[in-house]
Q: What sequence folds into this?
């Protein structure tokens, strides 16, 4: 016996309107998640290249900036990408980005020193 949350299509192969609406909503949410993930990955790449951070540290920087400014992570990532392309960082994002990069750089230096 198989159970599934997704109702089976009717014998003629169609689904009801509620099922179609739910599937369309899930599809839109998945597309948004994939796009947001790609944006965050690109912003991590910017931070890795410009500030010579490890990718994990780049993510932590974005996360910290997001939490400290109360701006969604993907929006912070979009802002960092725009900055890399020549736009100005909004003041709270720039301030928090500098502080987070500084904290992560110090942590990275400390762990690099311990590994030697």
A:
């Amino acid at each position: 016996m198989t159970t599934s949350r997704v109702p089976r299509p009717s014998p003629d192969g169609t689904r009801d309107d509620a099922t179609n609406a739910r599937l369309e909503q899930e599809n839109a949410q998945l597309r948004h998640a994939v796009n947001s993930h790609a944006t965050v990955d690109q912003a991590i790449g910017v931070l890795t290249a410009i500030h010579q951070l490890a990718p994990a540290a780049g993510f932590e920087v974005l996360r910290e900036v997001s939490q400290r400014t109360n701006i969604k992570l993907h929006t912070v990532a979009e802002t960092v990408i725009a900055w890399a392309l020549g736009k100005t960082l909004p003041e709270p994002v720039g301030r928090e980005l500098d502080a987070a990069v500084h904290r992560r750089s110090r942590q990275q230096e400390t762990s690099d020193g311990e590994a030697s």
